[in-house]
Amino acid sequence: MQKLIIKGKKKLSGSISISGSKNATLPILAATLLTDKVITLKNIPLVQDVHTMINLLKFIGLNIEISKKSKTLKISSNRKLKTVAPYNLLKTMRAGVLVLGPLLAKYKKAKVSLPGGCAIGARPVNLHLFALEKLGAKIKIKNGYIYASAKDGLKGSIIKFPSISVGATENAILAAVSAKGKTIISNCAIEPEIQDMIIFLKKMGCNINFVGKRKILIIGTREFKNIRHEVIFDRIELGTYLIAAALAGKKIIFLKVKPKIIETEIKLLKKMGIKIKIDKNKITIFESGKVNNVNIKTAPYPGFPTDLQAQIMILMLKASGVSKITENIFENRFMHVPELRRMGAKIIIKKNIAFVTGPTNLSGAEVMATDLRASVSLVLAALIADNRTVINRVYHLDRGYENLEKKLRKCKANINRV
Q: How far apart are CA 414 and CA 410, in angstroms?
């Protein structure tokens, strides 16, 4: 089992290029099931979740060529696809359930395993199924699988989500773009990754447009074309490294980014006293003095992302006084806290609220990663801790961060994988 060994208290400087977005790549890959045309995708992050999705699509029957050097995928299909997504390919990754909508739209049936992924809460698929049933699907769950069918094909409908869900919005869009007639989806998620998927679908020939802030109009089609698409940058990776720079940086420059997409995070860092310079496609963070305490609540985009909650907690440990995080998205997302306490962190959890007291001097320890974002929060803690930290179970990290050690080492961090 691989581990990371980090010696803290090193001042970081240099530049970091941000990879393509994992959370945009996964639904876009699922969307390629809709078409028999040739799709070329650029700026693909070669992380474990993307490899898992590629393996799933190959199992279903797509031809996929990977160029690791240019981070490009070429995808085509010249045969009838399987309509099954098995457990062994979905057990480590939640996004595998996104093949359900396109398979159902194209082949009128699908058998998809209930998904796995990080153990950060129930995250049921009920909203995915709710949307597909509105489009005319008959669904039953048996032996850990979703069995879905639409004998006469999916038909356009009005879908109003009772609560905002990124995955359910993606599955609903992927099914509706090939359903007969008109679909209106309201109270949908509007994350940049969903917007990138919509740009991709429009290039492909889909008739899909926002008609309100959280309202999408889709006219179904099956006429598609060959396209090329470059995936947007990973805003969660950027947010993670911005926090690393705020914690331990002298001067770190971030390249290949669009600051407008992460306005909420930038405002928060400025409020905490972090010195930031914003350019058109570049962000620079300078060494900051005193860090201010803050109260935040996680919320759907454009609110503060739950995927950065564990990371911002480490910056709060440097702030003067008590900071507060209210976790509104997932009920089990404080699993990193016991590990941080082993390093000396003063954090109290009451229901869905974490009270973080700083400034706290962390000391290195042996710790264990529990999920993707928790694992990277331990890396951030280790960068500012005294002595040496050993992080176990780093396979969680590899699901969503490309070349993490390489990027941090380039900025003079003392970090090694063994």
A: 10
316 vs 92 pLDDT, higher one: 316
What mean pLDDT, rounded, does the chain reach? 95
Is 0.85 topped by the overall pTM? yes
Is 118 tagged catalytic?
yes
Contacts of 256 (CB under 8 A, 6+ apart): 17, 18, 233, 281
Q: Pinpoint the alpha helices (H) of 352-393.
A: 372-384
Q: One-letter amino acid identity for 215? A: K
- Active-site option among 118, 188, 206, 411: 118
Within 159-261, residue ranges assigned H as helices are 166-176, 192-204, 235-248
Report pLDDT digits (tens) over 242-281.
Answer: 999 999 999 999 998 999 999 999 999 999 999 999 999 9
CATH fold for domain 4-18+233-417: UDP-n-acetylglucosamine1-carboxyvinyl-transferase; Chain (3.65.10)
List, in order, residues 6 or more apart from 137 with CB less than 8 Å away.
104, 129, 148, 149, 150, 154, 175
Q: In 206-270, which ranges are E strands?
A: 207-212, 215-219, 227-230, 249-255
Domain coordinates of the chain in residue numbers? 4-18+233-417, 22-230
Residue 131 to residue 231: CA distance in whole angstroms: 26
Query: pLDDT tens digit string along 98-153?
Result: 999 999 999 999 999 988 654 434 457 999 999 999 999 999 999 989 999 999 99
Among 264, 252, 362, 367, CA closest to 313: 362
Q: What is the mean pLDDT of residues 9-27?
A: 97
The Cβ of residue 130 has, within 10 Å, a number of other Cβ atoms equal to: 17
CATH 3.65.10.10, applies to 22-230: yes
d(CA 247, CA 239): 12
Could you check whether 4-18+233-417 and 22-230 share the same CATH topology? yes
Radius of gyration for the chain, computed over Cα atoms and rounded to the nearest angstrom: 22
Work out the burial of residue 221: count CB atoms within 10 Å of its CB; fewer than 13 is exposed, 13-18 middle, 19 or more buried. middle
Which pLDDT belongs to residue 115? 81
Name the residue type at position 111: K
What pLDDT, on a 0 to 100 scale, did the predictor assign at position 117? 53
Q: Give the mean model confidence (pLDDT) for residues 294-311.
A: 97
